[in-house]
Design a protein that fits this description.
Helix content: 40-55%
CATH topology of the largest domain: Rossmann fold
Strand content: 15-25%
Largest sheet: 6 strands, mixed
Radius of gyration: 28 Å
Oligomer: single chain
Distance between the termini: 51 Å
């Protein structure tokens, strides 16, 4: 089918224009990736016995999800690469174990593993592009999945032809065209048996929803692709307007509230400007409400803290990277029934007294703090002696710092200056993560979001 070749070459030429960089072909062994690989080889010259016009290699990840079938896919791709004398990189991973450890779905775990590996191959071997074989149906299915799960305009734009190193030269080719091209050109491929099941959400869309939509409009896949293109143009315009709003409202510490409110659409501008800091839709709605007069209230994302100070949204990093690795952190509002944890492995501190970003470091000679219940300072070295901490354990003890002050000798005692009082409105609860030296497991009845 010349239409498939024409669409592919037009897209590939556009995506690779002005660059002679190498291409890493992501090949699963399925019909989409084998047709893409065939088209690249034909286009770049090797199919006619000539040397490739640029550096090309294949990459195949064995996800260990289908036992012998997965191993067969890997052997198939390796044999294809040998046939065309193309370097091939393979990697076998235990996807289910990774998904369980990370708390991800199988699909998300596979995606994360795949793209992380592709990026590492590019860095190690100098590839400029990662070619993946997503097609027009994949784009339509992703658009529907995002719509069902809840999304904004950016999610409705679905897949793009290029996203950094990733290129999708088959994005405008429907799956039926790819299958027919494979048949006409006798391109061998593997069939993933799980693609025929309806366990995963994408397969339900593919096998149960799309056929109904195609009965209503046989060209629904192409129409949804066109809609995605139109929405992408709208998104580009909004991104440009967001940059202008950001420049107009930016302050040294965050954003000007009067500027954000000027012209209306406050919730939209807040989402555009604050979501990159990790704040979700619910938090942003709360921030919008608080902007009307609740000064001092704090909002916590996975990486930043925000509070309202007069006519300004102040944003600070919650803590440096090492701190977020070592500590789990939760923010709660003070209520009459709140009970201060007695476990010394937890620290409940007055959020209003903390200075951000926070820092965790090893204690040093000369460090001092004001132990809870005391009015004077004490050297940490003396405090550890009083607590009868074995000399062999002292070097593992860390402190949580707020500015120049020590707020918590982690696992032992908080500083009296950061204690919860009757005037405390917002509390931050810290616990040392379980894999850190000297850490204690968090009580099961105490919920903490580990950042």
């Amino acid at each position: 089918m010349r239409a498939v070749e024409h669409t592919f070459r037009e897209a590939a030429g556009r995506l690779l224009e002005g660059s002679s960089g190498g291409i890493l072909l992501a090949i699963s062994g399925g019909v989409d990736s084998m047709v893409m690989a065939h088209l690249f080889i034909q286009w770049l010259g090797s199919g006619s016995g000539k040397p490739l016009q640029r550096k090309v290699a294949a990459a195949h990840m064995n996800f260990s999800l289908r036992q012998a079938e997965s191993d067969g896919d890997q052997e198939f791709v390796e044999a294809w690469a040998r046939r065309y004398d193309i370097p091939v990189y393979t990697k076998k991973v235990q996807t289910l174990d990774y998904a369980s450890g990370k708390g991800l779905s199988t699909e998300m775990a596979a995606r994360e593993l795949r793209y992380q590996w592709f990026e590492s191959l590019c860095l190690e071997h100098g590839f400029s592009f990662i070619a993946v074989a997503h097609n027009a149906n994949d784009r339509a299915e992703t658009m529907l999945l995002n719509l069902i799960r809840g999304t904004g305009l950016r999610g409705l734009c679905s897949m793009k032809e290029q996203n950094s190193k990733i290129i999708r030269p088959l994005l405008n080719v429907p799956r039926t065209g790819i299958v027919e091209y494979a048949r006409e050109n006798e391109i061998a491929y593997r069939t993933d048996s799980t693609n025929l099941e309806t366990v995963y959400a994408r397969n339900k869309i593919r096998h149960l929803v799309m056929p109904v939509l195609e009965q209503i409009n046989p060209n629904v896949v192409q129409r949804m692709g066109k809609n995605a293109d139109n929405l992408s143009q709208t998104q580009l315009l909004l991104d440009s307007l967001t940059l202008e709003k950001q420049a107009a409202c930016a302050t040294l510490r965050g954003f000007s509230i009067p500027c954000l409110a000027r012209g209306g659409n406050v919730d939209f501008w807040l989402y555009q400007l604050l979501s990159p800091y990790g704040f979700n839709t619910s938090q942003i709605r709360g921030i919008a409400i608080s902007m009307e007069g609740q000064s001092g209230k704090k909002f916590l994302s996975r990486s930043h803290i925000l509070w309202i100070e007069r006519e300004e949204l102040v944003i600070r990093e919650l803590a440096n990277g090492l701190t977020l690795v070592k500590l789990g952190i939760e923010q709660v509002e003070r209520t009459p029934d709140f009970v201060i944890p007695e476990d010394r492995g937890l620290a409940a501190l007055d959020a209003g007294k903390l200075q951000f970003p926070l820092e965790v470091r090893k204690w040093k000679p000369g460090d001092r703090f004001m132990p809870l219940g005391m009015k004077g300072f004490k050297k940490i070295s003396d405090f550890l002696v009083d607590q009868k901490v074995p000399a062999s354990d002292k070097n593992d003890i860390c402190v949580l710092c707020s500015g120049d002050d020590i707020a918590w000798v982690i696992g032992w005692r908080i500083d009296n200056r950061f204690r919860i009082t009757d005037k405390t409105t917002t509390i931050m609860i810290f616990h040392q993560k379980a894999d850190e030296p000297g850490s204690r497991l968090f009580p099961e009845d105490q919920v903490v979001v580990s950042l």
